[in-house]
Amino acid sequence: MFDGPLETLVRQLAALPGLGSRSAKRIALHLLSAKGTKLDALMRALTEAAREIVTCNTCGNLDSSDPCRVCQDKSRDKSILCVVGGIADLWAVERTNSFKGQYHVLGGVLSALDGVGPDQLTIDQLLTRLRAGGIREVILALSATVDGQTTAHYLMDHMQGMDIHVTRLAHGVPVGGALEFLDDGTIATAMKSRASL
Predict the structure, then answer these.
(1) Cα-to-chain-centroid distance, residue 181
(2) Residue closest to 71 by CA, chosen among 110, 39, 101
(3) Cα 71 from Cα 67, distance rounded (Å)
(4) 104 DSSP 8-state letter
């Protein structure tokens, strides 16, 4: 039924997280029905994002500047570092307005099944930041999954001997829950009631 550029568009949309082929077809139809407004605006936004958005070399966040706005914010507490698995997790915590420290994005979590080891994550960069000094608390804000908890234990092992207080999010985060999908209240409450490991 589809061929050429339309098939390519549907295939590219279907490859996005959370979209299947039916959703991709509906989106493609919606964009192409308003080609002069919505499609052109989307193309401009994608082009600008590809050109302007960079990865922060300090924390791993995405922004139009390096270091990012979070890292540049002088009002934030530089002595508290929140370690998250991905950028969506950082955004989820920021959305709650409950944390005013710094971040470190690991780029995922350890997963033997998916072939993700320490070398695929930014663990070495994290340890370098910690050894540089100035950080008194590390919050391990990792998803409450087996892989998230395995990553937390791995990090705790590598932080032993450092004069750093290590905490984790409270158990209000459901087991098996991914941080990026939790509601603001749950994340804010978990952040406020974090516990030592």
Answers:
(1) 11
(2) 101
(3) 6
(4) E
Q: Is residue 11 very low, low, confident or very high in pLDDT (cuts 50, 70, 90)?
A: very high
pLDDT in tens, 128-155: 999 999 999 999 999 888 899 999 999 9
The H or E element containing residue 90 is helix 87-95
- pTM (predicted TM-score): 0.80
Q: Do 66 and 154 meet the contact criterion of CB atoms below 8 Å apart? A: no
- How many beta carbons lie within 10 A of that of residue 65, not counting itself? 12
Domains located in the chain, CATH noted: 4-52 (1.10.8.420), 62-196 (3.40.1360.10)
H or E stretch covering 5: helix 4-14
